[in-house]
Amino acid sequence: MRVAVECKSPLMQKSLELFLDKHLSSVKNCDILIRDVKCFDDERCFYISSAKDADLLKPFSKSQLILALEKRYKSMNKTKVEEDLEEDEDLDFDILQKRIESLTQEYQANILKVVRAFYEK
Fold first, then answer.
1. What is the reported pLDDT for 32?
2. Under 8 Å between Cβ of 23 and 1
3. One-character DSSP codes across 6-37
4. Do residues 76 and 31 lie in contact, with contact meaning Cβ atoms separated by under 8 Å?
5. What's the pLDDT tens digit per position in 48-107?
6. Which candidate, 15, 11, 6, places its Cα nearest to that of 61?
7. Which residues contact 13 (CB under 8 A, 6 or more apart)?
8. Given CA atoms 10, 14, 19, 24 in this order, what sign does their dihedral have?
9. pLDDT digits (tens, 9 = 90+) for 26-49
10. Where are the domains of the chain?
């Protein structure tokens, strides 16, 4: 989840940047844009305010913020996944089967490497 913060309030801006330091991104590359002013033209907008129609009401804790953002992110991605599934109704399971086989072989090789290293000591 990539988040950008664009607030008029400098205190809110800095607080959100500190809370979300691991998730910060530019406005162009973000999945969610957090603002303290209502925005109508951007579906990525996440509105924080004391108003009843806000996505997150002030005051809030860091955990409340993260949970609300994760919920929004999941709902945004859910619609994208549903659209992709509708387009790709006939999934090619041969590719999936080959990928699973290669991962299984890789996992088996790693386990054998660890066991050999253990017994060679």
1. 93
2. yes
3. E-SSHHHHHHHHHHTTTTB--TTT-SEEEESS
4. yes
5. 999 999 999 999 999 999 999 999 998 888 766 666 655 555 556 777 888 888 889 989
6. 15
7. 5, 6, 7
8. positive
9. 989 999 999 999 888 778 899 999
10. 3-90, 93-121
